[in-house]
Amino acid sequence: MTTQSSVAICLNNLAELYRGQGRYVDAELLYRRALVILEKSYGSDHPKVGATLNNLGMLYKNQRLYALTEPFYQRAIAVRTKALGADHPTVAASLNNLASLRHAQGVHWEAERLYQRALTITEKTFGQDHQPLATILNNLALIAEEQGRYVEAKFHYQRSLAIMEKVSGSDPLYLATSLENYAGLCRRMAQPVEANLLEARAMAIRAKYTGEMQAKLR
After folding, report:
1. Could you tell me if 100 and 139 are in contact, meaning their C-beta atoms sit under 8 angstroms apart?
2. Most buried one in 171, 172, 198, 200, CB count within 10 A?
3. Architecture category of domain 128-218 in CATH
4. What average pLDDT does this structure show over 141-153?
5. 3-state secondary structure of 107
């Protein structure tokens, strides 16, 4: 690894930290510096370039700057597909991100198509029980629910939750949110008993997580 590429990786990592902290202007400057270095070091079609393009897209989406988001997601998909192949998991990740953008824009048909492509790649790569698969299924459930396809949404929620509960290292807060989403669907389907149970599980997970975080700060 060259000195320049090491600098770019450090810049990208610091930008990720700033993005997580909401310091979007600082993050953008660092991402763009990293992108220039990586393109100069590796060329415009390298996986590291694709990763940084994807990160810039996520940065703009966090700010709801959708017109700026799309070109970076589209280019990230193109770069990753060319460098790694159409069935690589990072391509699926970028497809999922673009689908999330389309979902936010209300273009449900395209979002669903992109999610399905990401789902196919992820299942082919990792099998039936992997965290990224659970995320995509949860996203498909949200779209189906918004369109009134409740039975389909319930199937996706159930499959997503089964994966998260089976796979170690799943984000407990994401699991709690998914349980709450599923509970909301159950209420729409006039299933209050199941909804109450799901909400109680979500509350227990959040309470446990809060307790663990407080213990670490003591």
Report:
1. yes
2. 198
3. Alpha Horseshoe (1.25)
4. 96
5. coil
Q: Is the pTM of this model over 0.85?
A: yes
Residue where the block lists tokens 């690894």: 1
Domains in the chain: boundaries: 128-218
Integer Cα distance of 29 and 22 in angstroms: 13
**Is 120:83 a contact under the CB 8 Å cutoff?**
no
**43 dihedral zone (left: phi>0; alpha: psi -120 to 50; beta):** left
What confidence tens digit (pLDDT) does each residue in 12-35 have?
999 999 999 999 999 999 999 999
Burial (CB count within 10 angstroms: exposed 0-12, middle 13-18, buried 19+), residue 174: middle
Percent of the chain with pLDDT over 90: 83
Helix (H, G, I), strand (E, B) or coil at 46: coil
Contact present, 130 and 93 (Cβ < 8 Å): no
**Phi, psi at 59, each rounded to 5°:** -60, -45
Q: Say how far apart CA 95 and CA 76 lie, in whole Å.
A: 9
